[in-house]
Specification:
Layout: H1 3-11, H2 21-31, H3 36-43, H4 47-65, H5 74-86, H6 111-120, E1 127-132, H7 138-151, E2 155-160, H8 166-169, H9 172-187, H10 193-196, H11 203-215, E3 223-228, H12 237-253, E4 263-270, E5 288-291, H13 297-306, H14 320-328, H15 332-343, H16 352-361, H17 371-382, H18 385-394, H19 404-413, E6 416-419, E7 422-425, H20 428-437
Parallel strand pairs: 1-4, 1-5, 2-3, 3-4
Antiparallel strand pairs: 6-7
Length: about 450
């Protein structure tokens, strides 16, 4: 147990104003079984001052716990009490990975991003883009945007491309008919694709006419159209190069078409895979982009409290908050998974920092908690030669300068941050794993 861990533990029992440096050291070293003479010697304080501070501490703990606490009995007493407390969480742990429910205590509100997203879907003809590397919280934010849309009494259609067959994703005509059928079904409007589909007009115009004349014309309120996992189309270049400009055309059409102003698009996609489009045809440079960011220290500390850990965001190297942020770059999923694994441990945990280090130490191994995530990241990196080149330069010893596109690709993968025009490596754990594999 280090000084910070001793302080964190005491703060679960006593208010901070009752603690000072010497009381925390008395607690920490007494936990190790050391007497007041040794504590005075190691801490550099006068022996009488150490003893008086100890007496004051045991009295404060006695008052809080309503039982006699002494230097001799405090450790087994606290271990029992804190173990019982950890087993009496007011809510069950949730395994991280998917979208978090509205009531989940493990969801961290991104108040600024959420407010901007909620405001954007109120704008006629708008496009909201929720983007970021895998498992950054896009699905959780999407669910909250959908809930906000329903609270505004808007119509909602959610298209999840994970539900589309590969055959559909690889054929533009099938994809657009599938999209129209999904809209009709979810809005309880009788499908009528045969009335609008004309091979001479082409699939894109047929789909646009169906949307305007058969869907929007029948609605008396705005329609929020959510397309989730849009990145799945990036593997189908011919389809994506037609489908994505179609979405852009709907945005442009809304500038002068009253019917199309009822439409609000919410596009949700991962940024690991890159698709190249003419800037004038791409939907990825219009509307409002919400790019989900890594957790900062205060957010990690807040999340840790949900798991029962009283950690402070003080920037100290010995702090688990600082360790998590530096090791996994504050990645939301990786942070959640580490905290979940730590909180799932049975019994009292003397040193959360050491336990956390043990978890991270084996995280990349075949049975480690990050193994699957890291291998997916490896596949994404090696599929992008520009990113591989940039990654090697970033972690090389020659000081090679990365091109702007190399920096951009690494940022999209969550392997670098760009600060004041300078590309900086992040996510130590992922970088160490990838360097071994390349």
């Amino acid at each position: 147990m280090n000084h910070q861990e001793a302080k964190d533990l005491l703060l679960t029992l006593l208010p901070e104003e009752q603690l000072n440096l010497i009381k925390i050291e008395v607690f920490r070293l007494s936990w190790q079984g050391k007497g007041y003479n040794i504590i005075a010697e190691e801490s550099g304080y006068d022996h009488d001052y150490v003893r008086k501070s100890g007496s004051s501490l045991w009295k404060a703990l006695s008052d809080t716990l309503a039982t006699n606490v002494t230097k001799r009995n405090f450790r087994p007493l606290l271990e029992t009490r804190l173990t019982e407390s950890s087993l009496q969480r007011p809510y069950a742990l949730e395994y991280p990975g998917g979208a978090l429910a509205f009531s989940s205590p493990f969801y961290l509100e991104r108040s600024g991003e959420e407010a901007r997203a909620y405001n954007e879907i109120k704008q006629p003809g708008s496009v909201l883009r929720i983007k970021g590397p895998r498992k950054m919280g896009k699905s959780s934010l999407m669910l909250r945007v959908l809930d906000q849309a329903e609270s505004e009494d808007y119509q909602v259609v959610k298209i999840d491309l994970l539900q589309a067959d590969r055959k559909i994703l690889s054929d533009l005509d099938l994809l657009l008919q599938w999209l129209c059928l999904q809209m009709s079904t979810q809005l309880n409007i009788a499908p009528a694709m045969d009335d609008y589909w004309n091979p001479l007009m082409g699939s894109k115009l047929s789909c646009s006419n169906y949307l305007q004349q058969h869907i929007l014309a029948q609605l008396d309120r705005p329609l929020v159209l959510v397309i989730n996992e849009l990145n799945l189309l990036f593997d189908h270049q011919e389809v994506s190069q037609d489908f994505l400009p179609l979405l852009r055309s709907w945005f442009e059409e809304a500038k002068h078409n009253v019917l199309m102003q009822k439409l609000r698009q919410v596009l949700v996609y991962s940024t690991e895979v890159y698709v190249q489009l003419d800037l004038n045809l791409s939907p990825f440079n219009v509307g409002l982009a919400i790019e989900l960011q890594a957790f900062e220290d205060q957010q990690i500390a807040q999340l840790a409290k949900s798991y029962g850990f009283n950690w402070q965001a003080d920037g100290m190297a010995a702090n688990p908050v600082t360790y998590l942020r530096s090791t996994v770059a504050g990645h939301p999923y990786l942070t959640q998974l580490a905290l979940y694994t730590l909180a799932s441990s049975q019994g009292f945990m003397e040193s959360p920092m050491n336990s956390l280090k043990d978890i991270i130490k084996t995280a990349a191994e075949p049975k480690g908690i990050y193994n699957e995530f890291l291998h997916q990241l490896l596949a994404d990196l090696t599929a992008n030669l520009t990113a591989v080149s940039g990654f090697r330069k970033l972690h090389g010893s020659k000081g090679d300068v990365l091109s702007s596109i190399e920096s951009y690709q690494l940022e999209r993968l969550g392997l670098a941050t760009i600060v004041n025009g300078k590309t900086l490596a992040c996510n130590q754990l992922a970088a160490k794993f990838l360097l071994k594999q390349l």
